[in-house]
Amino acid sequence: xxxxxxxxxxxxxxxxxxxxxxxxxxxxxxxxxxxxxxxxxxxxxxxxxxxxxxxxxxxxxxxxxxxxxxxxxxxxxxxxxxxxxxxxxxxxxxxxxxxxxxxxxxxxxxxxxxxxxxxxxxxxxxxxxxxxxxxxxxxxxxxxxxxxxxxxxxxxxxxxxxxxxxxxxxxxxxxxxxx
Length: 179
Hints:
The chain is of the alpha/beta class. The chain has 6 helices and 4 strands, in the order H-H-E-H-E-H-H-E-H-E.
């Protein structure tokens, strides 16, 4: 079953365009974000909003995500646990979808803040985790959108949720490729 109809794609429907472009959309102006949220709500989306400026630490971020996204008690409060819970425990409605809104994200995602182990900011890693979850849920016909509002109109992020090219299952092992 297709996640979108041809008519929805032809009409450049809002959710279709967001997902077509990776599922993570940046916003600067609150009024544009508000317009898009109004459309999403009128089309059956559940909206969960976070005030990222209140995330003074990675710990606060994890606490907020756990509560508002209804993660299980065993949630490990780290980025690996978040990755797993976004795939396995996040409830994305079959009808409509789920839009996660991150307001004032620039205040949390400054490159000098909360550096993750791979030298990207925790804010960038978080968006990569979300981008991966968007793709995962789309495979099951569920629409997950990430709307990121920034007060910095120049904010940019590298590739989010980048996917590497993997060897096929039969050639996964080096010995099966003559190595």
